[in-house]
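Task: sequence design from structure.
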């Protein structure tokens, strides 16, 4: 599911007490989301302000893995970085953004293997993973930027990933 034309609701006049101090006003936090469309091989980051960024991506599982990422919506769990993080490393320059996928461990979004080729000649986003979705360094940098801007990614929705 790709979200587009996201608009925040209008606040009716008088909704907030104008005499209320800034610290007493309610806080509404809307977070960023990720969508992966397996048929389009595209990762979409939708920021809370409606900004949409799209990146090439692939869920190309290694034959020794537990298979593709299942369709559904999954909550963000944690980020891991690696000492060797670089564009050509296994996880790319920005580490692995891991989501809670039932029955699977360490399922994440990462980049990497830009210059390496597997036995079938695949590299970059097409290089196989153990179930993770591989995107570009630009894609993982956008996720990192959202996290650092108090606009955290809270979930990923995976669709058409057969």
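Answer:
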């Amino acid at each position: 599911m790709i979200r587009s034309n996201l608009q925040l609701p209008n606040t009716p006049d008088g909704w907030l007490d104008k005499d209320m101090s800034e610290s007493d006003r309610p806080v509404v936090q809307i977070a960023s989301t990720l969508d992966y469309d397996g048929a389009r091989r595209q990762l979409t980051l939708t920021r809370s302000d409606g900004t949409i960024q799209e990146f090439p991506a692939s869920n190309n599982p290694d034959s020794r893995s537990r298979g593709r990422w299942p369709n559904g919506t999954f909550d963000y769990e944690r980020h891991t970085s690696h000492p060797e993080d670089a564009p050509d490393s296994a996880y790319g320059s920005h580490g692995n953004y891991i989501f809670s996928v039932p029955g699977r461990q360490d399922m994440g979004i990462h980049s990497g293997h830009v210059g390496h080729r597997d036995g079938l000649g695949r590299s970059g986003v097409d290089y196989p993973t153990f179930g993770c979705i591989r995107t570009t360094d630009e894609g993982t940098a956008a996720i990192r930027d959202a996290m650092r801007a108090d606009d955290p990614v809270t979930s990923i929705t995976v669709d058409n990933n057969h």
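Residues 30-159 form a domain with the L,D-transpeptidase catalytic domain-like fold (CATH 2.40.440.10).
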